[in-house]
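pasting for ref
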Amino acid sequence: MVTQYGPSLEWQSSADPSLAGQSERRATRSARADDAEALSIVAATYLEWGWPVTVSGNRVLLAVGAEVIAIALPTGLTAAVVAILDDRRCPAPVLTDPRAPTHQVLLACEPFGAPLPWPTGTHLVSGTVTLPPSTTPLGPVTWQRAPAEPELPTCREIDIFGAVCTTMRAPDPSGRAVQ
């Protein structure tokens, strides 16, 4: 079940045989209720900011598409792209998701309106992006760089595209191509 205002509590069973029946459900429900309350508070904040989020289970999800886009960049490319975006005064929040350990996700508003020829290794994310403080089976989703302002990011898809292209053309100080 997905809701815009808070997650549903889910019963989880434990593999621990020392917990039996009702007490196991109560303990799990209590722990999950604390998590659910924290997720609801964060999701409400994102909603107040105007972010198109929903909560599903133990995850806060940002809908990508018409209002916001997400671009997965190889981790080695992210710092240089973020530096260019900062120089151009269009900062982008950056997410780290343990399910994609070799990539980081940049968020931007204002999709370009036409497909861009993104370089190999970069990916537009479709559907939803998991936001902090969500937890995945592999660990928590975190902000590598949290949003500076409550509005959706001030950079646009074309800004990130330009920064990626600029970075990939520039050699790094060691003389190797940035990847």
